[in-house]
Every structure is written in C-alpha cells, then in structure tokens.
Design goal:
This protein is of the alpha+beta class. It has 11 helices and 22 strands. 33% of the residues are buried.
Length: 440
C-alpha cells in the first residue's frame, strides 16, 4: 500500500558526508566548484525539514536516504520513513522518491543517536512533523511586526539579521536608498505595510547634449518599489545639480489589487507594463537591470487574480481624511476649508478631502473629494469628476518647489497643484484613494 501524499515533505541538506560535488551560487547560477572525496558514507545526507520548529527555534533535524550524496543547500522532496527519538531529541528519517526504504539500523548510525533511542513508525513520525510545522507557524505569527513602521528595518544589517528578524532583504537595505526616496516611501506607505522588493535606476550623468536630444532619455534617478499593497514608481522631480542635490520626488502609485496583467519588453532598455482595468502604465529601466526586473515581474505576478485562487482578499478601512487645519492656518483659510467640506458632505458621505488654498498666483480655492465611487474636484462653480473604476494610477509630487496631486484616468486626468507645506495632508488623501481603489 502506498503512503498518502501528505507524507511527502521538503528537506534542505545541511551536510553531505559522501563523495560528490560541492556547488555554490555564482551570479545567480548554481555552479559546481570542487570535488568532494567524503568519508565513510552510509547512504544518508544530513538535512532539516523546511518551515518547522523542533521546539527550540531550530528546524527539525533529519537524515535522508539518497542514491548519491548531494551538497549543502540542496532541497529535496522526500517521503517520511520514520524517526528516531532519544531524550530531548528527534531525528526524522526520510527517503528520496525512488529509493528503497532505509534500514532503521543504518538510519540510527547516520542520525548519530544513542543505542537506546526509540524508533517511530512513519505515521507517528509524520505527526511529529505536523506539530513542528504548527510550532513554526505560531513562532512566525508572534514575530510579526505590529508596532511602528513594520516596513522600516532601521539600523539592521542583512547578514546579521535576516535569519532572526522578520524583515525582507529590501527592508534591511532601506538605509542605502537616497533620503528623498525614503521620504517618498514614508509619506505613502501604511505603518503595517511590508516592502517586498526594489529596483533602483541610477541617474545618467555622462550623456552628451547630442545623446540627450537624440534619445530623449529620462536621466533622472528612479526607484521601482513593490509592497504587499502597491507598486510605486519614484522619480527625482528634477535632475540634481551642484546647488541643490535634492529637489524631491514624483511618485506614481498602482494598488496591487488593480493589477490584471504584467509584461516585460526587452530592447535597448527594459520596460515593465502593468495592466489595470482602466489602462496600462509603463516603467522603463536600464538593460543592465534586466535580472532585477525579472525578479520584480515574478513577484508582481503573485498578485494577479489568477495566482490568488481562493485566498481571502484584504478589505481596507478608509479613515475620513480632513483638510490639514494646522497647515491651512498659515494661509488663514482653515475655517473656510472646513465649511467647504461640510457643504459637500450634505450631498453624501465624504471618505477624504483635500483643500488647496488661495495664495500668490492662485486666486481660486480647490477641493478634492473622495467618495465611495468617485473622485471629484471643485474649483469655483466648475466640477471635474472621475469614477473610481476609470482610475488607472495615482500620482503625487513631494518637493520643496511645488506639490502636485494627480488622479490618472482612462480618458481624463484630475491634476491639482498645491503649496508644499500641505504635502502631508496630500499624501494622506492619496493613501485613502489608493485604499478605496483596492477595495473595488
């Protein structure tokens, strides 16, 4: 009688004591580096069961019967054959598919357990694996970051922390990003959001004037960042110069829930096309970052509807965002802004509002309003409306020179410029619109 498929598990080899070849990752390729003579080999490699906890925080130890010795780091799909238990220690015994069932006596020698160790039959051993998996899930759940900014792994070094703390490699490397990119992330990410991956496009400094005109290439530095909630395209607002190296950033946002398809086109550069129900957005990166773009594409595809299957979908709460009264006090229009929102609220619920005040060069006020099915802008008697199901992406400029909010639709765009002191309120309004879009 064959065992049920649930008796299969994933192992990672930690030590291969027999003769073979040692492999290492070189430029993302697995390459054989040296021959390994090995010693006395009993037909078992030492391994650990992936995503388990033996009760002490370590993975469940195992020995796996293989026809040839593999190499450290090799992952194997194997089947539970039993286990040896001695006081305070359990060593699983597994066999690679196609290998004859191992003899318990040889497995005991390979596992290096005492003579009085107890042999567990496969069903009992599998129960121990299931308990170890539950312990792992519980430990991982307790390790979730719930306070402060979950995505911001400040002061951590990847090599020191990646095995002991729950941040991603992209989060550990945040301190290497330019401060202007970090400010863009801080304004637009939720506190419990997680940063998954980033691809940074360096500034082009060595192009001649003729090359710039011929190629019409955007020379500004940029960052394509993926979180568990949104894709962000962060670009320098202007080319840094010798007088002021930080002009702020322009940011475009696409909620991951709106992504229907992603494509990569490779030519003189790499273009990543993100398709939403209301249109397509494209992001250009240098050809020498094609490997990083491939990783980004693979991660993006995990959010496609076809990849989610029957997984539950996140539904966001949308806190009512009001105009920033403290910032508007500097323009003497805090009360006027509140009255404008109250007037709009009489016609229906308001999920978020942003007020653009009068100032030098701008004689009329504007109000951006988010409802559950649309975004609209009022300027005097004029009204611009954009249904949420027509929205492709959102944009914001966070710069000391100027502020800008953009709602990009299928056939029209709402574009509002605001004074830079109101940037925090503008970012909060955009986060609310992003959540409303995702909920749709």
């Amino acid at each position: 009688m064959s065992r049920p498929e649930s008796s299969e598990l994933l192992l990672e080899v930690e030590k291969a004591p027999g003769p073979g070849i040692d492999f290492e990752h070189v430029d993302r390729e697995l390459i054989g580096m040296r021959a390994r003579a090995g010693g006395i080999w009993l037909g078992f490699d030492r391994a650990a069961v992936v995503e388990t906890d033996d009760g002490s925080g370590s993975r469940l130890a195992a020995v796996v019967a293989v026809p040839v010795s593999t190499f450290a780091g090799c992952r194997l799909r194997a089947r539970v054959a039993g286990a040896w238990r001695e006081e305070g220690r359990l060593v699983l015994v597994a066999q690679l598919l196609g290998v004859a069932a191992p003899l318990p006596a040889l497995a005991r020698l390979a596992a290096d357990v005492a003579d009085d160790a107890t042999w567990l039959e496969p069903e009992t051993a599998l129960s121990e694996v299931q308990r170890a998996r539950r312990r792992f899930r519980e430990r991982r759940a307790h390790a979730r970051i719930l306070g402060g900014r979950a995505w911001h792994g400040v002061g951590r070094v990847v090599e020191e922390s990646r095995f002991t703390t729950p941040h991603s490699a992209a989060e550990y490397r945040l301190d290497r990003l330019p401060p202007r990119f970090l400010r863009g992330l801080e304004g637009l990410l939720d506190d419990d959001e997680r940063l998954l991956y980033t691809v940074e496009r360096p500034e082009v400094r060595d192009a001649s004037i003729m090359e710039r005109v011929a190629r019409r290439e955007d020379r500004r530095a940029a960052l394509l960042a993926l979180t568990d909630r949104q894709l962000l395209w962060i670009v320098d607002h202007a080319n840094p110069d010798r007088y002021l190296s930080d002009w702020g950033v322009d940011v475009e946002v696409v909620p991951v829930e709106r992504i229907e398809r992603v494509e990569q086109v490779v030519g003189s550069s790499v273009q990543i096309h993100v398709v939403t129900p209301a249109g397509t957005r494209s992001y250009r990166l240098p050809l020498d970052l094609s490997a990083e773009c491939t990783v980004m594409l693979r991660l993006l595809r995990r959010f496609l509807p076809s990849a989610l299957g029957s997984l539950p979908r996140r539904v966001y709460e949308i806190p009512g965002v009001e105009p920033d009264a403290l910032a508007l006090d500097a323009f003497g229009q805090a009360v006027e802004a509140r009255d404008a929102v109250d007037l709009v609220r009489r016609a229906g619920p308001v999920l978020g509002a942003f007020y653009d005040p009068r100032r030098t060069g701008v004689r009329r006020t504007s109000l951006l309003v988010l409802r559950d099915d649309e975004v609209f802008r009022t300027t005097g008697d004029a009204i611009e409306r954009l249904p949420l199901n027509e929205v492709t992406a959102l944009g914001i400029t966070l710069s000391a020179l100027v502020g800008r909010l953009v709602v990009i639709g299928r056939s029209s765009t709402i574009d509002l410029r605001f004074p830079s002191p109101l940037a925090a309120g503008a970012a909060a309004w955009l986060r609310s619109v992003r959540r409303a879009l995702a909920n749709r």
